[in-house]
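Usage example:
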Amino acid sequence: IAGITQAPTSQILAAGRRMTLRCTQDMRHNAMYWYRQDLGLGLRLIHYSNTAGTTGKGEVPDGYSVSRANTDDFPLTLASAVPSQTSVYFCASSEGRDPDTQYFGPGTRLTVL
Amino acid sequence: GQNIDQPTEMTATEGAIVQINCTYQTSGFNGLFWYQQHAGEAPTFLSYNVLDGLEEKGRFSSFLSRSKGYSYLLLKELQMKDSASYLCAVRDSDYKLSFGAGTTVTVRA
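Running the assembly step on the lines above writes:
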């Protein structure tokens, strides 16, 4: 059982470039989430999806977009990367029913220069 | 919104007990989670409390008092592998998690 996979593991990106972070889960979870983790700030929710076909904005959505075409995949796109988007990005998923524990992927370390 | 506070760092000796406190202020409460995160790795689920009281899972226990906006994670019989960051997360009425900044626990021999 793979759980949640993310790609790439790490990436260095020039400012202004477009980048898509991939996330795939094989647990048939209804809900999926994208977080960024920065030193001293903890995990912050960027976007979420309660079920395939729906998405919502989290705490820090600006500069990011998501789509949820099917249950398994939840890509995160940076349309025009800026240095402040340098962070570690974690994808997570949950069943969508109590206790609705979230399980995290291994993360993508993104550096924008 | 949520305001979640936990200490930044704690140090303890192998075999000892450490208690990590978490206080929160929330506009709607729907459960509290503790996660463990080793350096460079993903957070992994440790415990979940939605009702007041103590939940015990082996060497780890978690306590919740909703009236006080307070939780703690108790780590007993500390092992070197317990050196990690411990994240307190509060779920709101929209079922979204807000995380504290995390407490880094260092276990010394």
